[in-house]
């Protein structure tokens, strides 16, 4: 495996923290905890800028560039015109991941970084002959701040088996297993073993079937409790992005409700 178990461009991700500057002392608890987890959180406050249009433009560009938006709720935040503008702007965008944190509950603030991590971790299960399509999925996932384990097609199967078993155990506690199913998968005992291992460890599985695949009875049995997604055999980048967003919504609904 070329990278550490859950890899990406960075350990955490880029996060915009919307808050009242009057709450900065408490917000630092959240910022510091997130930095410890490898995130790049931004608490936006530029004292040197006075032109409203200039400030608004900078804030909007930063929000555009970040996948995560954390709103720190407080009396001060609810009375802040700037926080209201940030929330209005983010509500008009699609594809952003939004979390609300109550300032009065420091424990929730300290755990928000761990919560985001649970919404990020993905294990990619695929047949060795499908490494190229797995690579395409992984690239889009990483670009959207997901932390992806996908093994390495150049590694020995013994090494990959051990590594992916550990990753699936982690995903069972925080994350999901994305099973890319193709005509190669249904003749791959290694991938079926990964599916069964994920099931045994009660990991959430997102099966994605590419093309017109006739699933053997064994596969159908182990997939019957999951909602399968269906795509073309060679999906476009736009189609992969759409499916990845669906997976993100699944993770958000599982870990933030």
List the helices and strands and how they pair.
Layout: E1 14-18, H1 24-36, E2 40-43, H2 52-65, E3 68-73, H3 75-78, H4 81-91, E4 97-102, H5 106-118, E5 121-125, H6 131-143, E6 147-149, H7 157-173, E7 176-181, H8 189-200, E8 205-210, H9 217-223, E9 229-231, H10 237-256
Parallel strand pairs: 1-2, 1-3, 3-4, 5-6, 5-7, 7-8, 8-9
Describe the 3D structure.
Helix 1 packs parallel to helix 5 and helix 6 packs across helix 10. Helix 1 links the parallel strand 1 and strand 2. The protein is 48% helix and 17% strand. It has two domains: 104 residues, Toll/interleukin-1 receptor homology (TIR) domain (Rossmann fold); 138 residues, Toll/interleukin-1 receptor homology (TIR) domain (Rossmann fold), CATH 3.40.50.10140. It has a five-stranded parallel sheet with strand order 6-5-7-8-9, with helices on both faces. The longest helix is centred in the C-terminal third of the chain and has 20 residues. The chain starts with 13 loop residues before the first strand and ends with a helix. It is α/β, with parallel strands linked by helices. The chain is built from ten helices and nine strands. The mean pLDDT is 82.
């Amino acid at each position: 495996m070329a990278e550490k178990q859950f890899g990406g461009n960075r350990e955490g991700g880029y996060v915009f923290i919307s808050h009242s500057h009057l709450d900065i002392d408490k917000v630092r608890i959240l910022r510091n905890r997130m930095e410890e987890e490898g995130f790049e959180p931004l608490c936006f406050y530029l004292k040197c800028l006075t032109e409203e249009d200039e400030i608004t433009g900078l804030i909007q560009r930063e929000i555009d560039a970040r996948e995560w938006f954390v709103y720190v709720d407080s009396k001060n935040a609810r009375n802040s015109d700037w926080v209201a503008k940030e929330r209005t702007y983010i509500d008009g965008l699609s594809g952003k991941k939004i979390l609300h944190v109550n300032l009065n509950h420091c424990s929730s603030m300290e755990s928000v970084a761990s919560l985001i991590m649970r919404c990020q971790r993905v294990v990619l299960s695929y047949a060795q002959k499908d490494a190229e399509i797995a690579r395409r999925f992984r690239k889009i996932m990483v670009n959207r701040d997901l932390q992806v384990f996908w093994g390495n097609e150049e590694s020995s199967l013994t090494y990959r088996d051990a590594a992916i078993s550990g990753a699936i155990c982690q995903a069972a506690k925080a994350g999901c297993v994305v099973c890319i199913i193709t005509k190669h998968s249904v003749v791959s005992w290694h991938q079926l073993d990964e599916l069964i291992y994920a099931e045994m460890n009660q990991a959430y599985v997102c099966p994605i079937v590419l093309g017109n695949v006739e699933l053997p009875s064994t596969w159908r049995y182990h997939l019957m409790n999951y909602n399968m997604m269906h795509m073309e055999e060679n999906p476009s980048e736009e189609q992969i992005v759409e499916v990845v967003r669906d997976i993100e919504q699944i993770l958000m609904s599982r870990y933030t409700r």
